Amino acid sequence: MVDEYLRTRFRIYAAGDVTLGPQFVYVAAYEGAIAASNALGVSRRKVDPRVVPSVTFTNPSIATVGLTEEEAKAKGFEVKTSVLPLDAVPRALVNYETTGVFKLVADAKTQKVLGVHIVAENAGEVIYAATLAVKFGLTIEDLRETLAPYLRVYKLFCVNS
């Protein structure tokens, strides 16, 4: 068991699978850097488990980060969601890979993105941008005003709003 600084009660730092956190190699690397830095007294960084992306490499892939609609509601958020089928994404049409969907979950009051869930051929590559949106509290408007090649993110909240 470790605290938010990855320190055990014996003042030993740990990272990766032994912490019983998410079992992904990228989580272990992230935690390893934090644990080493904290153990050496270089910094006092905390682990932020709310922004761990998850990817299941199937065909199509499934990727998720942040809260689901149900989790957000359970935490007391007034939720705004939008779903965009892949056949509305120009890049998917060009590649003939229209099986899938994007779902964004946002706080209806602040418009901040709380979670993103993707079923698509390249979901694992796209989830990184979604991770940044969740981690840094980007809003629906932030996404609408940001250029993205092919993926028309603004459609997510124009179509279903």
Structural notes for this entry:
This protein has helices at residues 25-39, 69-74, 90-94, 123-135, 140-144, 153-159; strands at 54-56, 61-66, 79-85, 101-107, 113-120. It has 161 residues and is of the alpha+beta class. The chain folds into 2 domains: 16-47, no CATH class; 51-159, FAD/NAD-linked reductase, C-terminal dimerisation domain (Enolase-like, domain 1), CATH 3.30.390.30. The chain has a 5-stranded antiparallel β-sheet. The radius of gyration is 18 Å and the shape is globular. The model has no long low-confidence stretch (mean pLDDT 90).
Identify the notable features of this structure and list them briefly.
single chain, 161 residues, alpha+beta, Enolase-like, domain 1, 2 domains, five-stranded antiparallel beta sheet, 32% helix, globular
Please sum up the structure shown:
This protein is of the alpha+beta class. 32% of the residues lie in helices and 19% in strands.
N to C succession of SSEs: HEEHEHEEHHH
The average pLDDT is: 90
Count of β-strands: 5
Tally the helices. 6
Q: Strand order within the widest sheet? A: 1-2-5-4-3
Identify the overall geometry.
Answer: globular
CATH architecture type of the largest domain: 2-Layer Sandwich
Return Rg in Å. 18 Å
**Helix fraction bin:** 25-40%
The CATH C-level name of the largest domain is Alpha Beta
Residue share in β-strands: 15-25%
The CATH homologous superfamily of the largest domain is called FAD/NAD-linked reductase, C-terminal dimerisation domain
Number of domains: 2
| Low-confidence spans | none
